[in-house]
Amino acid sequence: MIVAFSVTPLGVGEDVGEYVADAVRVVRESGLPNRTDAMFTSVEGEWDEVMDVVKRAVAAVEARAPRVSLVLKADIRPGVTDGLTSKVETVERHLAPGAG
Fold this sequence. Notes:
The chain has 100 residues and is an alpha+beta fold. It contains three helices and four strands; from the N terminus they run βαββαβα. Strands 2-3-1-4 form a four-stranded antiparallel sheet, covered by helices on one side. β2 (34-36) and β3 form a beta hairpin.
């Protein structure tokens, strides 16, 4: 499964990068395949291990912020691995010059 999620601290002002970095650090230290972009962090693995990482990422922000917002989207597809890479490669293949 792939989970894309965003953790946002509330009540700490507009500069939230330091708090978000705490969450991303948890994801990167998990050892699971992951990617971070401007809006979401995606992590891939089995249900329990991915949800544990999300829970710990939220807890890292919650430890320093009075309130936390979590947005989460999941692609649950048993038997699929390396979806973080293969999904993007498929789109890029369709975008390549000469692709139909």
